[in-house]
Specification:
heterodimer, A: about 300 residues, mainly alpha, B: mainly alpha
């Protein structure tokens, strides 16, 4: 009985499959085609795009930096760079400005991020909007705003004069002060946006535990909260520091001729002197410096993921 | 109390310099003085009456829209490929994709400029587009990759086992789940292109000039007050978007409960 039934079923099955032998073949072909596809293949178009338009041009710059007058292989540009006081001073200036800006962003960003974690949802949302408005506003517009504020007959000098606090206008831009103010303003949102999520994630019970064990408010803050917020501090500091090392627009508009940063010298070599080999070698130095700093800070501060 | 005063002062430092441009853009003075002596739309007339300004605004918009589309395509491909495969050197490839974000803009600028000048792309719209896509793709890859790696793979497996092929699964299951990441990636891409100046200043031609490049030229010569008009429009737009997108939290009632996105299976 059972066997008869099975034979009958086989017949039906056979009937059904017989109809679709062609389809099945097509399907098998499709399956084969599908099997050839691997997810990593999706990376090919973007990888090609990057290879052609980023890696190849960068290698060209690297080759150019070792090119001499008669297109011979030399390291002249590097010798010139490292043996000249002018360019070593530029590096020193760049580092000084970057360090000051990073510290300023940390000092200004920490209280704001902390305030956001202890206030009501509405207030913290309002602060976030206040952070996001400059964040999304173009760098150029914000630098322009600071030029309006800081110039000799600018808004700040006008207000100070009206209040009778000064007689002569203060020199607020075309010097290092202008660079500090402008760059801190532009990079502060990045610091706050790195600090806030880390602070938000700190377990409040740890603060309560410290308080119930008799620690005062200030002691708890510095011995419990601050250490727990360190991942945000190191992440934000690295982002701000690495960004400021390559800064170009803000220092060239708000700074003077005495405090030139590395990027500005590269630009000057290209636009004014057309010295491509030298500009290339400065670029290579800047690129290597950036990656050394990134590597070291990731190792020292144990930062897994920056962006 | 101290904390609130300090935080408020810092917020003023952050917001006031940006917002001050708005009243100044309506100044009737010929110079940039504050407070403005009177009201006048003269800088808006100067901006929109000048064919060069309007043309550069148009070019910037076209560039930003095309950049957003192209970097979404390239970024999604890269992120999906990277999240679904494991191979040696994967981290090196991710690092390479992030390079335009980390490498100082001036270096990318001179490298791309030199390369594009060699193949007669410098000064053309496509030359600018390529550079802008290069600068914008990292933001899309980063947001999409973060979102994809946090995804529960069971949804995709369920879709595949129900007979959908991998493309359909990606389109109908994966994309809806990473929608918000793609949206923020697209916003970053648009803003990157619309603001880009460091690489752009090398690549702009006589005919093809973007808005930031024209502002940059205006700033280097003298402080042209016409810039306040377009700057004020951008700032008001950003502020409005920020306020509207957060209107619920700002003006509405506090939500009683949140809908959990992850479905938890009962195991009793």
């Amino acid at each position: 009985m059972v066997k008869d039934f099975e034979v009958a079923m086989d017949g039906i099955r056979y009937k059904n499959t017989a109809k679709t032998v062609k389809d099945e073949k097509a399907e098998r072909k499709g399956l084969l085609g599908r099997n050839l596809f691997r997810p990593w293949m999706l990376i090919i178009p973007p990888a090609l795009f990057f290879a052609v338009f980023l890696i190849f041009p960068l290698l060209q710059i690297l080759a150019l930096s070792f090119t001499g007058a008669q297109s011979a292989l030399t390291a002249d540009s590097y010798v010139k760079f490292f043996s000249s006081d002018v360019y070593l001073k530029v590096i020193a200036t760049t580092f000084r400005i970057s360090i000051v800006v990073t510290l300023a962003c940390l000092v200004l960003g920490y209280p704001v991020a902390y305030a956001m974690t202890v206030c009501s949802k509405r207030i913290s949302c309002l602060i976030m909007i206040g952070v996001m408005i400059p964040f999304w506003t173009s760098l150029l517009v914000r630098t322009y705003a600071w030029m309006i504020l800081l110039q000799t007959n600018g808004v700040i000098n006008d207000i100070l004069k009206t209040l009778g606090l000064i007689r002569q206008p203060l020199e607020l831009m075309h010097n290092e002060l202008g660079i500090y103010v402008g760059m801190t303003h532009i990079l502060l949102p990045y610091m706050i946006l790195s600090l806030y999520p880390v602070m938000q994630g700190i377990d409040r019970n740890l603060i309560l535990a410290s308080r119930t064990l008799g620690a005062k408010k200030g002691y708890t803050f510095f011995r419990v909260f601050v250490p727990l917020s360190m991942p945000g501090v190191s992440c934000g500091s690295i982002i701000v520091f690495v960004s400021s090392i390559g800064y170009y627009i803000t220092p060239s508009l708000l700074g003077g001729t005495k405090n030139v940063m590395i990027s500005q010298t590269i630009q000057a070599q290209i636009n004014k002197l057309m010295n491509w080999p030298f500009a290339s070698s400065i670029s290579v130095v800047l690129l290597v410096l950036t990656y050394i700093i990134l590597f070291l800070s990731k190792k020292i501060m144990h930062v897994e993921k920056l962006w | 109390m101290m904390l609130w005063i300090v935080a408020a002062l810092i917020m003023l430092f952050l917001v006031l310099p940006v917002l001050i441009i708005v009243p100044m853009s309506f100044s009737s003075s010929r110079y940039l003085e504050f407070p403005p002596p009177g009201f006048s739309p003269q800088w808006y007339q100067a901006f929109f009456g000048n064919a060069q300004w309007v043309n550069s605004l148009k070019i910037s918009f076209e560039l930003a829209i095309l950049t957003t589309i192209l970097s979404l395509i390239l970024g999604i491909l890269a992120a999906e490929g990277l999240s679904k495969s494991e191979f040696r050197g994967k981290n090196a490839i991710i690092e390479t994709f992030m390079m335009p974000m980390l490498v100082p803009g001036i270096i990318v600028g001179i490298a791309v400029y030199r390369f594009e000048a060699g193949i007669n792309l410098s000064g053309t719209f496509s030359g600018l587009l390529i550079a802008h896509v290069l600068m914008a793709v990292p933001f899309v890859i980063r947001t999409a990759l973060a979102s994809l790696s946090g995804l529960n793979p069971n949804y995709e497996l369920a879709s595949r086992s129900l007979g959908a092929n991998s493309f359909l699964t990606f389109l109908r299951v994966t994309v809806p789940m990473i929608k918000s990441a793609l949206f923020s990636g697209a916003m970053f891409a648009f803003a990157t292109s619309f603001d880009e100046i460091i690489v752009t200043q090398f690549l702009c031609g006589v005919q093809i000039t973007t808005l930031p490049k024209r502002i940059w030229d205006g700033l280097n010569q003298q402080l042209d007050p016409t810039i306040t008009a377009i700057a004020a429009i951008v700032i008001v737009f950003i502020t409005a978007v920020m306020l509207l997108s957060n209107a619920k939290t700002l003006f509405g009632r506090e939500p009683k409960y949140q809908i959990q996105e992850e479905i938890v299976l009962d195991d009793d």
